[in-house]
Amino acid sequence: MVELSRSLVYLGCLLVSSTLQIQTVRAAKDVVSQLKLYPQKTMIDATWELQEPTGEVIRYLVSWIPDGVGVATASCYVNSSATSTSACDVYPTLDSCTLYTVTVQPKALGGSTQINTGTPASAAAYTLQDVPPAGSPPEVSSVASRSVTLTWTKPATKCEVVNYTVVYSGQVMWGNHATLEVNSAYSKTTTINIAGLTPYSNYSFSVVAATAAGKGEPSLPTYCVTQEDDDNFRKNLNNDSTSTSSFPPSEPNIGLIVGMLVGISLFLMVLGLLIYFRRQIGASCCKEAPAKHIESPSNKIERDTAGNIPLADQRYTQMSSDAGSQYEIPLLTPPPQLKICFMYILY
Ligand SMILES: *[C@@H]1O[C@H](CO)[C@@H](O)[C@H](O)[C@H]1NC(C)=O
Ligand SMILES: *[C@@H]1O[C@H](CO)[C@@H](O)[C@H](O)[C@H]1NC(C)=O
Ligand SMILES: *[C@@H]1O[C@H](CO)[C@@H](O)[C@H](O)[C@H]1NC(C)=O
Ligand SMILES: *[C@@H]1O[C@H](CO)[C@@H](O)[C@H](O)[C@H]1NC(C)=O
């Protein structure tokens, strides 16, 4: 009747070796025995038998206690008509790659409440490898014109991450704002340096972790704009066959505007100088001619009296006599230089 035995059974599971400990403790009635565990990625199913039933057991309390925690993080009730977790009232979810102790406790009615009865059974097993959950976005620890260094943290999984894939894409922020092809880089650690990037482009970086079970979901992206390059950058960009327009797009327009402004300014300066000198000549003509006339009226008169007057002198004499002011003289018969004088004034 009294049988005390312990046996350890090692089950080789698909990817993780899990330990199944079947424990049969001393009991007289309502003994849970033949407890078998069936580990999955997020659940450890169990089946058992009830030895020496008294008929008092109304249901079983099945609990899953993670290794090192000590208290059950998941549990369910199984009607006594069934002896499997497939009949759980609530089907729990467990962490993958985690060692759990599974306990099946028979329950009986003790008055108005339920009490433990009979002899429970326990066994332990690891949940299987699962794909990792999405991690947090990577952090940019350094950025250059054609490379970045990223770091990130391991996603919340107890499974071993075998490698990380950084998926990146970008949009050029100059020229035709081309969308850059989606690329990936691999790393076995939680940091990577990605080279071969296009300068001054808005990149997005997402990290995908992989366990032996496969790749998980990508993290949210981190955006990062690569720096502009040195002086050779523009030359190289313009020489790049994939770049159909120059950098930056507004540069040619600015150059054109500046060029036009400089050209117009130079033209006006030259014109101004030309007009200035012409005005000087014109002014000297305008002023000196009457001045001469005024300075040497005696000569004119003398010549006038002598009857040896040239046509020009005759004109001056006539004008000075007709108009009192010497400045009105050119208005009556403006010399060609004076037109430029007026132009200069208008300008
Ligand atoms: C347990 O099983 C009995 C009959 O076997 C049934 O009447 C009862 O509703 C079941 N309880 C639950 C919670 O499934
Ligand atoms: C980069 O692209 C993202 C997504 O389109 C956008 O939210 C972000 O503002 C961009 N960054 C810059 C600097 O343009
Ligand atoms: C990363 O790990 C996954 C899962 O084992 C594998 O399929 C993939 O080939 C690995 N990638 C690299 C680059 O090693
Ligand atoms: C343009 O690029 C090609 C190859 O990338 C190089 O051989 C050539 O010297 C470049 N020309 C100029 C003007 O930079």
From TrEMBL:
Keywords: Membrane, Signal, Transmembrane, Transmembrane helix. Residues 1-27 form the signal peptide. One of its GO terms (cellular component) is membrane. Residues 134-229 form the Fibronectin type-III domain. The chain crosses the membrane at residues 254-277. SUPFAM superfamilies: Fibronectin type III. This is Uncharacterized protein LOC125178709.
